[in-house]
Specification:
InterPro entries: SBP_3_CS, Solute-binding_3/MltF_N. This is ABC-type amino acid transport/signal transduction systems periplasmic component-related protein. Its main location: other. It comes from Methanococcus maripaludis X1. Keywords: Signal. By secondary structure, this protein is an alpha+beta fold. Strand 6, helix 4 and strand 7 form a beta-alpha-beta unit. Strands 3, 4, 5, 6, 7, 8, 9 and 10 form an eight-stranded mixed β-sheet that branches. The protein is globular. It folds into two domains: 102 residues, 3-Layer(aba) Sandwich (D-Maltodextrin-Binding Protein, domain 2), CATH 3.40.190.10; 88 residues, D-Maltodextrin-Binding Protein, domain 2, CATH 3.40.190.
C-alpha cells in the first residue's frame, strides 16, 4: 500500500522497495519482488513462497507465526473522518460505518476496540477502495495508521480530521518465516548499519 509500495508509470516504487533493494545490495543479493493482496502476502510468507515481508506491524499474535527484524518505523493507529464531518470523538461513532483494510493490524485494532460502540467494521482489500467509499458517503470513519493517512491527505482530496488521540503505537519491521534466524540476523545487521550511517533516515524522507 502507498507510500510503502505502489506502481508509478508501470514501475514499482515506494519506501519498501528502496529499503529492500538497499538491504539486498548490502547482502550481495538481487531482490525479486512479488505483489500480493495484503492477506495473500502473509500466507506467502508462511508457505515459504517469499523470504521476507517488509513494513509489518509487530504484534504478539503475529509473533506466533513469524519472526521480525528490529523495528525501523514507529507510527500510530488513528481514527479519521472527513474535515466537515459532524463526528467529534469516538463516542459519536456508535452504530456508524467504519472502514479498515483487511488483514492489517488496524483491522485487528478496530474490531477489538470499536466493537463496544456497536460500530459496523467494513474491511477492504485496498486503501484505494476504502477511500472511494468514504468519498461516496458509505463510510463514516476510517481506522488506519498515521503514515497512510498523511500520504492520502497529501496526495488526494481526502481532507481528513483525526477524532482520536494517538491510540496505539505501531512498530513496523521486516517479517521472516518462523525460526529463520539466519535471515533475521542478517537483516538486523544491515538495518543497524543503515541506521548508524543515516542511510535509513535518508530513505524515510
Amino acid at each position: 500500500m502507498p507510500p510503502q509500495q505502489y506502481y508509478e508509470d508501470g514501475e514499482l516504487k515506494g519506501f519498501d522497495i528502496d529499503l529492500m533493494k538497499e538491504i539486498a545490495n548490502n547482502m550481495g543479493l538481487k531482490p525479486e519482488f512479488k505483489i500480493y493482496e495484503y492477506g495473500g502476502a502473509h500466507e506467502a510468507l508462511l508457505n515459504g513462497e517469499i523470504d521476507c515481508l517488509p513494513s509489518m506491524t509487530i504484534s504478539p499474535e503475529r509473533k506466533k507465526d513469524m519472526d521480525f527484524s528490529r523495528a525501523y518505523i514507529q507510527t500510530y493507529v488513528v481514527v479519521a473522518v472527513f474535515e466537515n464531518s459532524p463526528y467529534q470523538d469516538l463516542t459519536d461513532l456508535n452504530g456508524k460505518e467504519i472502514a479498515v483494510v483487511t488483514n492489517t493490524y488496524t483491522e485487528e485494532w478496530a474490531k477489538r476496540y470499536l466493537g463496544s460502540l456497536n460500530a459496523n467494521i467494513n474491511s477492504y482489500d485496498s486503501i484505494q477502495g476504502l477511500v472511494s467509499d468514504v468519498y461516496s458517503g458509505n463510510i463514516d470513519a476510517v481506522v488506519t495508521d498515521q503514515i497512510q493517512l498523511d500520504y492520502y491527505s497529501k496526495n488526494s482530496n481526502f481532507e481528513s480530521r483525526i477524532i482520536s488521540e494517538k491510540m496505539t503505537i505501531e512498530y513496523w519491521a521486516i517479517a521472516v518465516k518462523k525460526d529463520n534466524h539466519n535471515l533475521q540476523n542478517e537483516i538486523n545487521d544491515v538495518l543497524f548499519e543503515l541506521d548508524e550511517n543515516k542511510a535509513l533516515y535518508e530513505l524515510k524522507k
